[in-house]
Amino acid sequence: MSERAERGAVVRNGGLHTTVQDTGRDGYYSLGIPPSGAMDQFSYRVANMLVGNPEEAAALEATYVGPTLEFTDDRRVAVTGAEAPITVNDEAVPTWQTLAVRSGDVLQFSMLTGGARPYIAISGGIGVQPYLGSRSTYTLTGLGGFGGRPLAEGDLLPLGPQEHAAPPPTGTAVAAALRPDLPGVTPLRTMIGLCSYRVTEDSLRAFTEVEWKVTKDADRIGYRLRGGRIDFVDREPPHGAGSGPANVVDLGYPIGSIQVPGGDEPIVLLNDAVTAGGYATVGTVISVDRDRLAQSKTGDLVRFEPVDLQTALDARADRNARIARVRQSLRESSTPA
Prior knowledge:
The chain contains five helices and 20 strands. By secondary structure, it is α+β, with helices and mostly antiparallel strands. The protein folds into two domains: 3-178, no CATH class; 185-306, Beta Barrel (Cyclophilin), CATH 2.40.100. The strands form four sheets. Strands 12-19-16-17-14-13-20 form a seven-stranded mixed barrel. The radius of gyration is 21 Å and the shape is elongated.
């Protein structure tokens, strides 16, 4: 067997939009290249912890339907994020837990029962070549990951060496209290700003009171929502803005910014979105709650909750503290009594 085959996984079924992702491709936003990276950073990082990888190692992110993988050597595997029944060789195995697989074993997913995106980490990490400092996939232009595209049947997915992987013992699980919850209506803490002056006070207030439904147009580029109406302030369009009420002179779009190209379907721009444009943005979903949005699927409900900068920073600190608790619990599980 070749060296490559010894460190690979055969893709028997690519699932639905399964891509290689990591922490993201930072530093190129000004050049029009978005960061990409795992949309649910908490689940992604914890999956890597469970198999002994560095937290920034490349893993797999699927949407709705996970892939079927056949391993060509012995590995540790963990599945986190969305809730989905999974099997190894047709035997049910748990998520959020360190699993052992051997050469010839097959990992398979059934339909999701909650959430939207499962994450699959494999000891040694996904061994694709970095592009601009990241192994993340940006499919719109075919950058990074596995040939810049989702996995497909027949692919041989390269895996990295395991010499430095130190996974916790097989069967080690993340406590339920440390896992993300999947509420019926997902609250999205939002910093109101940028172009919120373009909508009426009544519309802005209603924007934060309405429960918005995720439409079928929900992917790594952005989530289009439906459920309310946004009215704009009358104005004389400035030069270069265009005549549409939602138009402004071009501006940059932060990841998580809420664009309102029309009055009834706001779009939350996400990891693979364009970096600038000419539509008004009424606010930005804070980074921590983009993890929550990543686990919302078509038909789910979300609600925007206005917060200030300090609340956003506190939320980030809280998530870091929760990650530290997971890290500590896994370290303790690896320490002999």
